[in-house]
Design a protein that fits this description.
Blueprint: H1 10-19, H2 28-41, H3 50-54, H4 61-70, H5 75-97, E1 102-111, E2 127-131, E3 136-150, E4 153-161
Antiparallel strand pairs: 1-3, 2-3, 3-4
Helix pairs in contact: 1-2
Length: about 180
């Protein structure tokens, strides 16, 4: 067992994925990549880089990068499971402790230094967004996150990029908060 792991065994993650019947929806290679990502993400020092993922995988980092960029799998199945599990766990804690549970919604902007038209490698889904922290329009990704919490427990419910291409019939941009 490595002392850098927060989750001590890979089998715990494999059992979690199997318990929720995810192998019915995903192929073995996809399951292996999902498991690798989960193991790496729970390791101390994880920075979110493909090199970090490659340390916990039998695959080369280019294979992992290809899977993340162009892999053919339905991530909505996994997202629905995470949403259902996080809400169920927080509601169960609330029921046991009689404490209220909270839904926390926040958005932030991951600011980029150059617009896509000037960048050597343009990034997808970037745009100009109003930053309330800076009080001006900045270029980057707008990320919307929802966390559910009760007592000392806080669990991620969802993390989504703001998609300005989705609009209401009245012309307003659809935001994540419209769907919570």
């Amino acid at each position: 067992m490595s002392h850098t792991d927060i989750v001590p065994e890979h089998t715990a993650i494999r059992n979690y994925l199997s318990q929720h019947r995810l192998p019915l929806y995903f192929s073995k290679p996809v399951m292996a990549h999902i498991e690798t990502y989960m193991v790496a993400a729970t390791a101390k020092g994880f920075r979110g880089k493909v090199v970090d993922l490659a340390e916990y995988s039998d695959c080369h980092r280019t294979s992992i990068g290809h899977f993340l960029a162009e892999g053919k799998w339905d991530e909505s199945v996994l997202q629905r499971q995470v949403k259902a599990d996080s809400l169920a766990q927080v509601m169960a804690i609330s029921g046991r402790t009689a404490e209220p549970y909270f839904v926390i919604h926040d958005d932030t902007i991951a600011q980029k230094t150059k617009p896509s038209s000037q960048a050597q490698s343009p990034m997808e889904c970037t745009g100009f967004h109003h930053s309330y922290l800076l009080g001006k329009i900045v270029f980057g990704h707008q990320i919307q996150a929802t966390v559910v919490a009760c007592g000392d427990t806080s669990l991620i419910h969802s993390i989504d990029l703001c998609d300005k291409s989705q609009k209401h019939p009245d012309g307003k941009v659809v935001t994540k908060i419209d769907r919570v």
